[in-house]
Amino acid sequence: MSVLRRHLLATTLLVAATPMTAVYAQDAANPAGTLGAASTAPAQNPTDPEAQADAAESVADQGGEIVVTGSRIRRPDLESASPIAVVDSQQIQSQGIVNTQDLLQKLPQVGIPGLSRTNSNFLTSGNGVATIDLRNLGDSRTLVLVNGRRFVPGVAGTSIVDVNNIPADFVDRIEVVTGGASAIYGSDAIAGVVNYVLKTDMQGIVGRAQYGLTSRGDSQNYTASLTGGTKFGADDRGSIIANVTYSKDLGLLSRKRAISAEDCSAAGCGPQSYSSYPAQGRFEFQNSNNENGVASNEGGYASNLFTFNPDNSVVTGFPTGYGFNRNSVRRISTPIERYLAAGSAQYRFSDAATAFVEATYAKTKSSSQIEALALDSQTDVGVGYGIDNPFIPLSIRQQIAARNSDAIASNDVTSIDFRRRQNEVFSRSNRNDRDTMRFAGGLRGDLGSKWQYETSVVYGQLKDRTSSQDIDITRYANALDATTDAQGNIICRDATARAAGCVPINLFGYNTATPEASAYVRAAVPRAVAIKNTQFVASGSVSGSLFALPYGDVQVALGAEYRREKSAENWDELTNAGQNSGNQTPDTVGKFNVKELFGEIDVPLLKDISFVNSLSIQGAARYSDYSTIGRVFSWNAGGEYSPVRGLRFRGNYAVANRAPNIGELFSSASETFPTVQDPCDGVTATSTGTYDVACRAIPGVASAISRNGTFEYTLADIQSINGFNGGNRNLQEEKGKTLTFGAVFAPDQVRGLSLTVDYFDIKLTNAIDIIPRATSIQQCLLTNLPQFCNNVIRNTGTGFIRTVNAQNVNIADTKTRGIDVNLRYGRALGLVADDRFDVNVLYTHTLRYQTQSDPSAPVYSGVGNIEFGSVFRDKVNATATYGAGPFSVNWTATYLSPMVDTVRDEFAESSEGLDPEIIAHNEIKSRIYHDVQFRARVGDTREMELFVGVNNLFDRKPPKLEDTVFYGSITGTTTAADIYDPIGRRFYAGAQVRF
Question: What is the largest CA-CA distance in the chain?
């Protein structure tokens, strides 16, 4: 896009016919964007408001039409059919942004991301992935596009795009459409659309380098980028532009911040909250003849427990302070390393045919860092140490001999169980390696004077491998069972295991496991998952004037699209079999295709008459046929009315849909044996409990009562209950209904001023969720509804529950509504020659955010509550830019209103015992984050730019929310690290050079 057209977009978007908010923070010396100086600019002064208005009218007169996200109909005045917020390349660079997620998170319309570098450290895959969540409705309900076309998903089995793959320096602007847009773009757009519009037109080369670190000297990041473009062919018919980017963020360890340096619990932070799985081990005498399996302390013994000092001398019991501080090795943010390449080219053969091609490649490396595995001998391996194990310390062997010979059977020791951190044995931290590629190409052109067409194909592929070390529990059990041979050497007892290389393992104390033993118990194949997502899209559309009405042409767009998606998630064999330290996890493979027809219409009804400057209506519809769920229909309708120039009213109603994704449909069912309670247990012929009447209506229960007087489970009956977790191929689409209406005020009398106020109301129904097993059992008895009873399978003869499933179902609801306000003003102040001041304020006031997981569940309000949605009542993003000559300064402030977090329910009964300081943390005060950047252009032609900046200028601390106690706390951060800044003040500096 040329300098003029980029500039016009910045200055005229806010007078569109539908809700819009522009985030353009123009620089006085280069308002069109950082590449503007390398392009051909018109003669007007682009900082002069009158020149801007004249240029806008000139483009309209010359038919300078473009397509803005939210509609396929071209409009000379840059109107859009949907609410839009726009971020341009200058806004990205004015805040030192390396990943666009960081900038979008500041917008009031954008909610808490499902995945980011500060909330993904503890995931088994997806560490460091960056996603976008509009209106807090979920990442899977936000559709991310590049140049108006789909991008291959970055998470297995979903439609979620990893925006790490999009180089910030290659972005011309980001258009954010809020509200249902499925009629325009298809599934996944219930919350809206984020469209990355890449640079397409440039002459010259621009290089940029940036370095950043915190005020504490950590969390360094590096970025280097090179962007170049040229035109070629007769009359500059062809153009090509490309970008290569390298960036690296070193992440941040939890111990580097005082708030998260130590483990925390309901007892507070410090040694009293350290893990009972220490690096030196916590050991307990067992007696297999006792009911609880634990040896007693009869006979005057102080404790069944023992541990070790740092010198590996034995300590009786397990005193406070001997636990393990997990936060000492955890991360607040994961490191990310990216190698990015992107390019596009186009060639105009004639007005009727322009060929275009786009290509993107991204290699992303990330990792997690979490504490070594907390191994429990019984639950994880199934065996502990035998009392004849030669590694047992002498003093412990002597105590065992004394216990077993004192004629007190209850304190006998038959084995030693343990809890021990596997620090020197293996690391379970993940290593991620992702390769993403995408190609798009097609033809577009004019079909006569009033019609245009476009055809395109898109192919994308993600390959993601996540791996970590793990153990083989069979080998581990062999290594625990040791004896001595005739020469006194300690060996594995099992001869077959010895022949296979078994090395006995010593876990009694710090660093006692030898490298050879550690190598033996480690799995021969790492715990790993290989993910492959593929996407193919073919589409074609035409748009133009259908016929003329007295007040303008009826504009339409018609098209068709075919899309095919496939996702495969393949785990290693030990994970499939449940023979390592993790849960048994099956592979997931699924695919679907969808065929779609879509159309739009824009009808001008009145124009330039008394009390009507303009009046029009718009509509759109999409018919989709999925190979998985069948036929789906989406539509929207709206209109705009302008009584006088400078004032517009507009409204829109949309019905959007989201088809279930591959993971929700095809995740393989994995069996589990849950602990559940049947409310019918103990029911008699006369009992009057809440569920008793419904229980007696079950034939098997009634029969048991008539025979035995009561219906009762044995322990064996309870332990035999199984269940399955996983996908559900009977899912249907989610449905979203969005209403928006508002006004734009942009008076001619105050040039450069615009104010937009918009109301939104979104209702999400039939949302996909998982019903807790207890809820399914209880509500089946109370309501007999199939959404609950289909999950509960009873033995028809006995009435006993045999299976309780927890699979995906269409059952949840979410409702949100609020008000968006955008105030924008810009003008030359005249303090010095060629100066300019611009201010832009984005504000969202959320009136309601309610969720209900199923019809029986309570309705929770998430406004101002981290536990139930983390939606701020008020969120404001304000940007001010002043430029004069070669200098400019940008100041951005982000306001987050107060929040409430809630101490977890399991602590509710003992709240009196909680640390008073923890209870006080429930009330989270409002916060304002300030970012500032200074930029200077040097050289005779100002071909070089130098910039320095500070984010979180006043080092605003995050609220302290103890891990495991508060709902919003991210493990290892002791705060809601994906909501508040956990890193602190950050400096950066860089340079940009044009050639």
Answer: 110
- Supply the pLDDT for residue 467: 94
- CA-based Rg of the chain, rounded to a whole angstrom? 32
pLDDT at 251 over 80: yes
pLDDT of residue 854: 87
Kindly report the number of other CB atoms within 10 A of residue 954's CB atom: 10
| Among candidate residues 618, 626, 621, 706, the one with its CA nearest the CA of residue 656 | 621
Mean pLDDT (whole number) for 979-983? 96
Q: If phi over 0 gives left and psi between -120 and 50 gives alpha, with beta otherwise, what is residue 984? A: left
Number of H helices, E strands in the chain: 17, 49
Pairing relation of β-strands 527-549 and 314-316? unpaired
Q: What is the mean predicted confidence (pLDDT) over 81-102?
A: 83
Instruction: Count the neighbouring beta carbons within 10 Å of the beta carbon of residue 819.
Output: 14
Residue 261 CA to chain centroid, in angstroms?
25
Which pair of structure tokens corresponds to residue 262?
């130590």
Query: According to the model, what pLDDT value does residue 916 have?
Result: 78
Please, are residues 507 and 513 in contact by the beta-carbon 8 Å criterion?
Answer: yes
Who contacts 595 (Cβ-Cβ below 8 Å, separation ≥6)? 560, 561, 562, 624, 625
Q: Tell me the two tokens of residue 563.
A: 């899309």
Burial state string for 205-240 with b = 16 or more CB within 10 A and e = fewer than 16? bbbbebebbbeeeebbbbbbbbbbbeeeeeeeebbb
Structure letter (DSSP) for residue 45: -
pLDDT tens digit string along 776-833? 999 999 999 888 999 999 999 999 999 999 888 999 999 999 999 999 999 999 888 8
Give the Cα separation of 170 and 166 in Å (integer). 8
221-232 vs 927-938, strand pairing mode = unpaired
CA–CA distance, 532 with 403 (Å, rounded to integer): 58
In angstroms, the CA 364 to CA 219 distance is 18
229 close to 201: Cβ distance less than 8 angstroms: yes
What is d(CA 762, CA 180) in angstroms, rounded to the nearest whole number? 8
To which residue do tokens 């038959």 refer?
414
Question: What's the mean pLDDT when you consider all of the chain?
Answer: 88
Do 148 and 172 touch, CB atoms closer than 8 A?
A: no
At residue 751, does pLDDT exceed 50? yes
The DSSP secondary structure of 962-973, one letter per residue, reads -TTTBTTPPTTT
What number is the average pLDDT over the span 893-905? Answer: 86
Segment (H or E) for 307: strand 305-308
Task: Report d(CA 709, CA 698) in Å as an integer.
Answer: 15
Per DSSP, the three-state class of 416 is: strand
Backbone angles phi, psi at 645, to 5 degrees: -60, 130
Residues paired with 737 in a beta bridge:
655, 763
| Inter-residue contact 95 to 84 (CB < 8 Å) | no
pLDDT per residue over 614-663, tens digit each? 999 999 999 999 999 999 999 999 999 999 999 999 999 999 999 999 99
Q: Which amino acid is at 237?
A: R
d(CA 738, CA 791): 32
Q: Say what the pTM is.
A: 0.88
Neighbours of 372 (CB within 10 A): 21
Angle between helices 3-12 and 49-61 (to 10 degrees): 110
Exposed/middle/buried for residue 164 (C-beta within 10 Å: 0-12, 13-18, 19+): buried
The CA distance from 165 to 339, in Å, is 9
